[in-house]
Amino acid sequence: MRKPIKAFILAAGLGERLRPITDLLPKPLLPLAGKPLLQTVLEKVSALPVSAIGLNLHYKGEMIGEWIRGSAFREKIVLFPEDSLLGTGGALKNAEAFLGESDFIVHNADILSSVNLETLLDFHRAAGNCATLAVHDCPRFNTVAVGREGCLTGVGKSRTLRETERWTAFTGIVVYSPDFLSFLPPGRSSVVDAWMRAVQAGRRVGTLDVTGACWNDIGTPSAYASSVLDALRHEGETVFIHPSATGCERASLDGYVVLEKGVVLGEGVALKDCIVLPGAAPGPGIYRAGIIGPGFVLELGEKEMGFPVEDGAVLIGTGGSDRKYYRIREKETTAVLMRCSPRDPDFTRHMEYTGFFRSCSLPVPELLEQNPVAMRARFEDLGDTSLYGWLKCRRREGQVEEAYRKVLDILVLLHTAATCRVGECRLLQERVFDYGHLRWETGYFLERFVQGLMDVPVRNLSALQDEFHSLAARVDAFPKTVIHRDFQSQNIMITGGGTPRLIDYQGARLGPPAYDLASMLWDPYYRLDGALRERLVGYYVERISAAAGERFSARELRDTLLPCRLQRHMQALGAYGFLSVEKEKKYFLKHVPEALRHLKEETALARDEYPELYRLVSGL
After folding, report:
1. Alpha helices of 19-75 — where are they, by DSSP H?
2. pLDDT digits (tens, 9 = 90+) for 559-583
3. Which of 206, 298, 466, 568 is the Cys-Cys partner for 129 at CB 3.0 to 4.6 Å?
4. Is residue 318 part of a domain?
5. Measuring CA to CA, which residue among 282, 516, 294 is closest to residue 415?
6. How far is Cα of residue 551 from the mean position of the Cα atoms in its chain?
């Protein structure tokens, strides 16, 4: 059990390099996809055994104080207003009575990082330091000289580095022992001077090298924009729309788009890769790669926005695949470059399926070039707006139904036209979604989700395996068509005029068409209203009846839906377990509750047939 400590957040600065953004908001309240920067810092610090948190205020201090009074941290925070700025040292001296009883951690309010604060605190206490600075190698900010034993020897590039020293950068995070406060003079001062006074007095000012940890100093518009995009990517998202934002259904959104609190969009607004700050109402026009606030637009460009770049190309996509996708410039247009690992078994199928599906009039991207030796290919660029992202806007039910009907039209084409001609594509004709694959899915569910992610023991495995055998045999006996096998909202791109296009189809097989229907209409990524879902099932039945004639049975399809829903949601939960644990893509965890809700509903409906599965799932 660690001893309690105090924490202090430096939040008084003017944020001058961030103007005009900080004319609107103080830096600590800058939102990162709906969450103020200060909240992120407070959540991180609060994970320590912190008895209380001090926070200094000056610039727009009343706004910060108001936010704190409405936050979950209000009982723990003590405010230290400054009539005039006291500096990084003066702020701590001003809070000496508050900080002087125990070790304390100081964290700049404009720093985002993955630095492990527990490790820093433990290191500080074990070393017996007067102060322990978290440092890293960041050439742009390397101004802190450190000796062989990791102790601070100087600050500032004006000094000559000795052979035994190296340059590092201060992260803005430091742990102090209470006696450090004696090195701070009253009034305005810099904490850097106090570090050197402590060193000169023979006290040990140590460092912990945290090189490799994620770190961002949000001091410029570019740094802020890249932090916002990082926050989106961390959540596996490309779009964030605050619940209070209005009008996005009237605008055109593409790429990374953030609409913060109170944003109003109107007709004729087109946003691509834009952050729209609280209260902004941009007029009609095309906005690209920038920050939009009330009365101002900061055009940054892709590089300054912090897009991940490899070999000069912008890395795109947030899915679960190990393949990499890049947007590349080609004269006056763009294309998507796909790079696969040398042994990716899906590469050849992707190439073959693209040609076959396009010949069947399925709306897949055009293959522009393929290089099997280098395992890469260029495709038509369909943009960045998936159905999943499109649905982030509040849409009228009629708009949602119209979009889903268009998507189901694609599914009907896949299940009929492509199926009739499957003999033209040998690779697809030979891939059957059969008993063995269905049993693999249920094994995946047990291993990766139940036992892996949930850490729940399976008590009656033999009975459960018998039920999985029965389920797989039943689903395998259903009539088969060509199916996408991952037909969900993230694999449908919404292009110009609201036209849906299909991607990520290299896993297609011959299987029961209800599996695709279940994947889309019972999609864990987006919850459809029950009445709307039933209408959409009816629409699919009507359309496929017209296309397939006597070969299609509506009763047979409805009989296959529940078993296919069971299979699909066990597969999805197994994937979420694997991707979040093995691939460390934690953002998939947020989809677990909805997938599990579906599975609980389905096992309840099928409890007489699969009682052991019902018992297992109802306890999760």
Report:
1. 21-24, 37-46, 61-69
2. 999 999 999 999 999 999 999 999 8
3. 206
4. no
5. 516
6. 43
